[in-house]
User: Which sequence fits this backbone?
């Protein structure tokens, strides 16, 4: 080989080697623990992954997803197995039971943690108040509006209707933590609204897909027994919100329509009014917090707060059936989420 060709190959090798160094990215390992594979959970997680990859292009993000299949004990078992492996750079929990297990685990105190799709972080003991920081290296956001804001919105509809007696609303929910916590918040405010009378209608939380079917049947049965006492119902946050066909089954068996729901899909199916953070917004907002953590800001220093992006939806067909006029400002807020 000639002297020129040796020099050429040496220069080419140096170029390739230096280019590979420039192109090489640091790999960050992110573990995601989901409570159960219902749409708000899986869609929020997918939006989180997509947004995180977009806003931290300087890193190679390696994501491993685990599902607790709706069981807190399963979440605990997954975390025990993870504790035997090298610590990830970040653990993300999605929904209440996975977050409860993660927050209680002493195996990951030094690992930064982030939660999303948790409605009541204060009631769960994660922080003493919204806006406070956690002592267990975890942060995140609540994705639901305060109970008073939601009741004010329903009350606004009833005031516009100039009703002469209160509307009896069944608060349907399971004993799933987020669902029961939100219902308790609503019941605590019930006496402040002369147009609203809230009645709790519950079912025990049952794990898994079969459990969702059984919970749906239980709620339909319980509503049937109270149908003569109720003017409609409130579909609270939690697994029941994701139950396929619940609204149709209730309507078929009782004739009752949902007056408020914590999901846009429920408004499409017939709920009069809904206010919710959509999964895409939840995931993107969580990704922005994750970026702070991956950029070496401690999760201990990031306050737990509430989402600041909500979608309002109304169903005009239900409003007509119930003879409840929708205030014009609600229609303006709903924009592209007016259904019939």
Assistant:
């Amino acid at each position: 080989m000639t002297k020129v060709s040796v020099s050429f190959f040496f220069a080419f090798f140096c170029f390739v080697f230096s280019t590979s160094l420039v192109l090489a990215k640091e790999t960050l390992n992110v573990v995601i623990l989901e409570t159960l594979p219902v749409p708000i959970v899986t869609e929020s997680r997918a939006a989180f992954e997509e947004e995180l990859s977009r806003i931290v292009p300087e890193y190679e993000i390696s994501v491993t997803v685990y599902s607790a299949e709706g069981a807190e004990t399963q979440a605990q078992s997954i975390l025990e197995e993870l504790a035997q492996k090298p610590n990830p750079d970040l653990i993300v929990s999605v929904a209440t039971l996975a977050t409860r297990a993660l927050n209680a685990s002493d195996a990951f105190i030094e690992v930064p943690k982030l939660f999303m799709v948790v409605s009541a972080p204060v009631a769960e003991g994660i922080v003493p108040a919204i806006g406070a920081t956690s002592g267990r290296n975890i942060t995140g956001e609540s994705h639901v509006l305060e109970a008073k804001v939601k009741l004010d919105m329903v009350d606004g509809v009833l005031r516009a209707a100039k009703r002469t007696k209160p509307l009896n609303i069944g608060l349907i929910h399971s004993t799933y933590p987020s669902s029961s916590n939100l219902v308790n918040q609503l019941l605590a405010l019930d006496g402040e609204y002369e147009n609203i009378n809230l009645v709790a209608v519950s079912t025990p939380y049952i794990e898994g897909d079969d459990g969702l079917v059984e919970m749906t049947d239980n709620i339909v049965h319980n509503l049937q027994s109270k149908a003569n006492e109720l003017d409609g119902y409130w579909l609270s946050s939690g697994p029941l919100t994701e139950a396929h066909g619940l609204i149709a089954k209730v309507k078929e068996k009782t004739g009752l329509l949902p007056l408020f729901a914590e999901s846009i899909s429920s408004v499409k199916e017939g709920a009069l009014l809904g206010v919710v953070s959509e999964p895409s917004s939840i995931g993107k907002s969580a990704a922005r917090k994750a970026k702070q953590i991956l950029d070496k800001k401690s999760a201990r220093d990031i306050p737990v707060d509430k989402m600041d992006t909500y979608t309002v939806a109304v169903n005009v067909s239900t409003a007509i059936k119930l003879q409840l006029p929708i205030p014009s400002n609600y229609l303006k807020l709903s924009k592209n989420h007016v259904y019939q």
Summary: The first strand starts at residue 26 and ends at 34.
